[in-house]
Amino acid sequence: MTLKVGETELTQPFKVVKPSNLPATQEDLDAQYDLLLRIHQQLERTVKSINQMRDLRSQLAGWAKRTAGKDESKKVAESAKALSEKVLEIEKMLQIPDLRPGWADNLNQGTRLFGKLSELPSAVAIGDYRPTDAAEAAFSSIKERVEEQIKRFEELVTGELPAFNKLAAKTGLDAVIVG
Question: What residues make up the domain containing 85?
Answer without folding.
Answer: 25-168
